[in-house]
Amino acid sequence: MKVPFHIITTANLGAAYPFISDEGLPVLGAYIGQNLLGGHFAYDPFELYNRSLITNPNMIVLGQIGRGKSSFIKSYIWRQSVFGKRAWVIDPKGEYGDLAAAFSVKPIALRPGGHIRLNPLDFYRVTPSSTRRKSLQSPGVVSGHCSDGCHSVSVGLISSLASTCLGRPLNPREKSAIEAAVRTAEQGSAQVPTLNSVVTNLFEPSADSAEELRSSRRSLAEDGRDVALELRRLVDGELKGMFDGPTTEGLDLDMPLVVLDLSAVYGSPMLGMIMICAMAWLRSWLDYDRSVKTIFVVDEAWAVLMHVETARWLQSLWKLARSYGVSNIAVVHRASDLTRLGGERSEQSGLGTGLLADSETRVIYGQSPLEVQSAQALLGLNSKEAELLSRLGRGIALWKIGDRSFLVKHVLAEGERHFVDTDAAMRGTASLVENQYGRG
Ligand SMILES: Nc1ncnc2c1ncn2[C@@H]1O[C@H](COP(=O)(O)OP(=O)(O)OP(=O)(O)O)[C@@H](O)[C@H]1O
Ligand SMILES: [Mg+2]
Q: Does residue 175 sit in the same domain as residue 290?
């Protein structure tokens, strides 16, 4: 059979023959595995950024259940630690314990009524960013010292939580009530403001707040009452003890790995909000020390993407990546997690695509045939790449880095297998203790 001539410019060659004609990336950073078209594959977003090969250091990992997403993340963190990178992980399923043990650290296990409490408003602690801490000390004096930045981050966080709880956008009265309550919490407190103090100020606004808003205390309390009642659910009731006061002292963040284990609340309808509070707390510590490059992982990020407000908050974190020296990684099951939940034309859909735009590295594991079309459209895959998605075996992913494509088999080292194994329950070898904590 005679093959017809095909003429193409070198500018378009990479798109037409994505796996054949790419000149590849320099082998920099952590070894990931085998490039299935030849050679080894390594990755380091910071190095690639410094060489202007990518414009942001963030990553999205997508794939069906059990394809090896978390295993990749765990071994990536392990290997990146050799290069001095630290990792902070939001772990909703409680499956990073063995990795933490390999680093000789203990996960910070958050559970209602547990011993550990995190204050999502901790960014009010004022410490020079060059100071490395050994552990969390008593907060310094904060009122008046924190820039307006703290105020707007707090108002943004509280508004996101309130709007998510209420299931609707906030009205102007509610927004003003939140703003006033945060301001009073900042001024009145000798310590760092807490969610509790904000809720109290929503229920009982100060005379100054009322005067400033040309209102009465009673009327202002009425404006913020729905918000206060909803936010109370985060500091009282089933989640009591997790976010309702100052952070427990002595938590050690000066570690190569910090894992926030949220498995005790994995089934909670408030999981997305709980994850946001945990992320806000971790983010607050980035202000202290930007000297160490950080890999910030949000596993099971679909829970955050379920609500417009929490998704928006996640995106704001993505936007800060470069200024904080952070590479953010979100792990989701399918491309449509980024858009589907809010409907095609919703703001959520826009947020999902925005998050993708802010994640120049996309690691795409096997997708169900039903998902291929939306993945193709959303991720800008060509037909060859799309065809592959439903045929990728466990541990094999299509890597899109900017407009380059690679087919990579993640290779596990023998010494890594014990901390990536999530199949114990399937083999029937999980212990009773493991089952109780929802491992696997
Ligand atoms: N590259 C690999 N080589 C061999 N085995 C692997 C590889 N990647 C993952 N596995 C095995 O596959 C199992 C499932 O992996 P993992 O938990 O990473 O999947 P996942 O995609 O995160 O699943 P889920 O969506 O349920 O969280 C693990 O027990 C792990 O040991
Ligand atoms: Mg996983």
A: no
pLDDT recorded at residue 8: 66
Q: 432 is written with which tokens?
A: 């009773």
3-state SS record for 159-174: HHHHHHHHCCCCCHHH
Is the residue at 20 inside a domain? Answer: no
With a 6 Å cutoff on the Cβ, whether 68 touches ligand 1 is yes
Contacts of 159 (CB under 8 A, 6+ apart): 170, 175, 178, 309
Task: Tell me: do 370 and 386 sit in the same domain.
Answer: yes
| pLDDT per position as a tens digit, 108-135 | 999 988 889 999 988 766 544 434 444 4
pTM to 2 decimals? 0.86
Q: Cβ(312) to ligand 1 under 6 A?
A: no
Is 11 within the bounds of a domain? no
Residue 420 CA: which ligand 1 atom is closest? 31
Q: Is residue 7 part of a domain?
A: no
pLDDT confidence bin for 138, thresholds 50/70/90: very low
- For ligand 1, atom 15, the nearest C-alpha belongs to 68
| β 59-62/326-332 pair status | parallel
Are 287 and 170 within one domain? no
CA-closest residue to ligand 1 atom 5: 395
User: CA quadruple 61, 440, 272, 76: dihedral positive or negative?
Assistant: negative
Do 76 and 112 belong to one domain? yes
Q: Give tens-digit pLDDT for 192-226.
A: 889 999 999 999 999 999 999 999 999 999 999 99
**Domain that residue 213 falls in:** 123-239
From the CB of 75, is ligand 1 less than 6 Å away?
no
